[in-house]
């Protein structure tokens, strides 16, 4: 039962990260070039 809870929490977290474009290579590149606040807003 505990494993199912972790699986559901991880799946939900992954969907949220994907929908917020945190998994996008373009967004990660912008973050490291200090061109956009989007990723810092998600992390913060």
Characteristics:
single chain; 73% helix
Helix and strand succession? HHH
Question: Mean of the pLDDT scores?
Answer: 83
Rg? 13 Å
Percent of residues in helices comes to over 70%
Q: Could you say which overall geometry the principal axes of the C-alpha atoms support?
A: elongated
The total count of strands amounts to 0
Major beta sheet, specifics? none
Low-confidence stretches: none
Rounded to the nearest angstrom, the distance between the terminal CA atoms is 31 Å
Give the helix tally: 3
**What percentage of amino acids are in beta strands?**
under 5%
Which structural category do the helix and sheet elements fall into? mainly alpha
What's the quick description here?
The protein is mainly alpha-helical.
Walkthrough of the structure:
With 44 residues, this protein is mainly α. It has one domain (2-43). Helix content is 73%, strand content 0%. The chain is built from 3 helices and no strands. The chain has helices at 2-19, 25-32, 38-43. The longest helix has 18 residues, at 2-19. The termini are far apart. The mean pLDDT is 83.
């Amino acid at each position: 039962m505990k494993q199912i809870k972790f699986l559901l929490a991880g799946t939900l977290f992954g969907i949220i990260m994907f929908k917020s474009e945190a998994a996008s290579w373009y967004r990660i590149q912008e973050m490291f070039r200090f061109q956009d606040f989007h990723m810092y807003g998600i992390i913060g």
